[in-house]
């Protein structure tokens, strides 16, 4: 089974996620025109595991219909040589074998890469195959000091902009994956890319499959409740030798430290939006659509997009501590309205009660 092979390499196979991502790839090809997929979600929810399984599915589970180029960690991607090498490897060849020379000039490099990709596109057409380029942990590009002011892939220096330029629609699609981040100002959406929100929580069966340490215990339900089923939080609990008290103490310090950085680094408008979202999460109320704590909040869907859920239970505890004064201010501001609602409800209930006699 494919899962057994992934399991031996420490990678959990989650069938529904891989199926959904495969459908997203197929849709991107059917859509035509420059198209891509952006895999989104907080750090530590299993995006990289899912991408590995997706690559295997496309390579070996689709009657060899797809060719895949996979750059698993963009932090290590420094120049065009590495991109060329990865592309050639996925096609079973090399630059020396193709007698392809790499120029030192960025403009010439961009032009030559486009020629290179166009040539591959013709080969794909003859082979009746499709090509998927996968770039994992794309946000690490923006973490580099010289790039952290960039806000879009298209503004990054060569070779990073080729993620866009290599997309050819019906035969070539790019997939990028990025963890939500409060510190680095990169855009969450890009032209031509369809967004896929990766599930954040595992169920108990998945947790026990992913972590042998949990599978041999008899308190799996409690572990699921404490960690919210977030893979990274399960691992963190294990690192504290399953001591819930020590785990919660450590995690609360981490969340509060992150919130303190938000307070110190964000503009007044941004921080006001983050505060509104956090208070809205605590009170199950609406938040702020533009600014919210991307590391610890999950935005709703559709009409509920300004409603937020905590990534795992401790987030609410940390928010209640950090934003206590804001919660009190909210209640005070709305106290008159709340009292009015209560009076109206009381009057209505009394009226119904007496009319029944």
Radius of gyration: 25 Å
Proportion of residues in helical segments: 40-55%
Largest sheet: 5 strands, parallel
Please state the second-level CATH architecture of the largest domain: 3-Layer(aba) Sandwich
- CATH superfamily label of the largest domain: P-loop containing nucleotide triphosphate hydrolases
Looking at the structure, what is the overall shape?
Answer: globular
Contiguous uncertain segments of 5+ residues? 1-6, 351-357
CATH topology of the largest domain: Rossmann fold
Number of strands: 7
Give the strand content.
5-15%
Query: Would you state the CATH class of the largest domain?
Result: Alpha Beta
Overall structural domain count? 2
Note the gap between the termini. Answer: 69 Å
DSSP summary: helix tally: 16
Explained architecture:
By secondary structure, the chain is α/β, with parallel strands linked by helices. The protein has 2 domains: 2-197, P-loop containing nucleotide triphosphate hydrolases (Rossmann fold), CATH 3.40.50.300; 243-330. It is built from 16 helices and 7 strands. It has helices at residues 2-8, 15-31, 47-60, 80-90, 95-98, 106-127, 139-142, 162-165, 204-210, 212-215, 220-227, 231-239, 244-265, 268-282, 314-322, 324-355, and strands at residues 36-41, 66-71, 130-135, 172-179, 193-197, 297-299, 308-310. A hairpin with an 8-residue loop joins β6 (297-299) and β7. α2 (15-31) crosses α3 (47-60) and α13 crosses α15 (314-322). The longest helix has 32 residues, at 324-355.
